[in-house]
Amino acid sequence: MNSIYDAIIVGGGVIGGSIAFQLAKRGKKVLLLEKDRLASKASGAAAGMLGAQAELDADNPLFTLASRSRGMFPALSKELKDISGIDIELVNKGMFKVALTDDQVAELKKMIKVQQDAGLEAEWLSTAEIRKTEPLLSDEIKGGMFIPGDGQVSATRLSLAFTKSAAALGVDIKEFVHVFDLRTENGYVKGVSTNIGEFSSENVIVASGAWSAFLLEKSGINLDTYPIKGECFSVLTDRPLLEKTIFSHGCYLVPKVGGRIIVGATVKANTFDQKVSMEGISTLIEKATQLLPAIKETEWEKTWAGIRPQTGDGLPYFGEHPAYKGLFIATGHFRNGILLSPITGVLIADIVEGKTNPEWSAFRLERSIQTQFS
Ligand code: FAD
Ligand code: GLY
């Protein structure tokens, strides 16, 4: 078996899916390979928050990228629905980032000032003002930041909408195909070797999330990345308990369609173990109850865990490898891969077409590998 493609993407999460969709829109013949089921890893575990302002500091290079990506969701939601029929459940009601201590109050007020100075909408609300929208929030809350622009989607639906739309535009998608190695010749990528044979392409994009470094290692490429596990649980309720997403230190509550509330998430570095721990879930239950006492009345649904892809300096890698022409890497989205997926697809499709944008130089691959190749 030896088909020739314009590009091969390794990884069927939200990042691989978004890249496949953008390349297909540009008329490329693409193959996407996923070793398990589509969206079965971090992308299927995510809470789906589009927390550009809640989760990132304004001086982080990711902030501009994330704000730009967040702005792509309304049009993308319609485009994906039209092509795939999948509703990504985009909710644009804003988010409350709440404080439980005086230090958190000071921190949030500083954050609001920085964001307002940058021209973004964010305001401080007292507990009484927040309670007008969220009457069931605990009286332990000392006010919070209202962020009208931060929304949320269904992470799994978004990931599957990307891949289904990509398939509708001609992308070949194969699940349960494990890419064992990259095929290279004299510094050029030639394709991949898998459990079902070899596939050829002069462009291979590694979008394998937390597992990207394993694949690259086999070709002698070291990528400064590490896994960070996150656990969540969900509950069901007939009576709506929340209107908007509530974000706090170490815990968030995301109201979803059908009376579901997702509660997340733990943060444990350097493990690929996806087991859910009693310790992780009991900590989340405690924090969630402190924020929203009425959550105790809900029906238990389920728990799960996912592995976030993190990098040494906390910024994702987007680029072509200087030692292997045609080898592209798109990973390291850590806690914001759902939010960053629309812009990542466009950016990587641009790079594959030879269009690099200096605006995004903070994410270039060379920062990880300069010591190996300088
Ligand atoms: P993945 O989804 O892990 O996909 C990589 C895929 O590559 C996997 O399916 C894997 O099986 C496949 N693969 C790996 N190696 C190979 C190989 N050799 N051959 C073939 N296939 C391979 N982000 C947000 O923006 N908002 C949130 O609210 C949010 N909440 C989160 C909550 C939790 C609990 C977790 C864990 C993450 C959360 N994130 C959130 C982060 C987000 O989920 C990730 O940043 C994002 O999913 C990363 O996408 P990915 O496609 O790079 O990785
Ligand atoms: N962005 C939420 C999380 O990673 O848990």
Automatic annotation (TrEMBL):
<dbReference type="GO" id="GO:0043799">
    <property type="term" value="F:glycine oxidase activity"/>
</dbReference>
<comment type="pathway">
    <text>Cofactor biosynthesis; thiamine diphosphate biosynthesis.</text>
</comment>
<dbReference type="GO" id="GO:0005737">
    <property type="term" value="C:cytoplasm"/>
</dbReference>
<keyword id="KW-0560">Oxidoreductase</keyword>
<dbReference type="InterPro" id="IPR012727">
    <property type="entry name" value="Gly_oxidase_ThiO"/>
</dbReference>
<keyword id="KW-0784">Thiamine biosynthesis</keyword>
<dbReference type="Pfam" id="PF01266">
    <property type="entry name" value="DAO"/>
</dbReference>
<protein>
    <recommendedName>
        <fullName>glycine oxidase</fullName>
        <ecNumber>1.4.3.19</ecNumber>
    </recommendedName>
</protein>
<dbReference type="InterPro" id="IPR006076">
    <property type="entry name" value="FAD-dep_OxRdtase"/>
</dbReference>
<feature type="domain" description="FAD dependent oxidoreductase">
    <location>
        <begin position="6"/>
        <end position="350"/>
    </location>
</feature>
<dbReference type="GO" id="GO:0050660">
    <property type="term" value="F:flavin adenine dinucleotide binding"/>
</dbReference>
<dbReference type="GO" id="GO:0009228">
    <property type="term" value="P:thiamine biosynthetic process"/>
</dbReference>
<dbReference type="InterPro" id="IPR036188">
    <property type="entry name" value="FAD/NAD-bd_sf"/>
</dbReference>
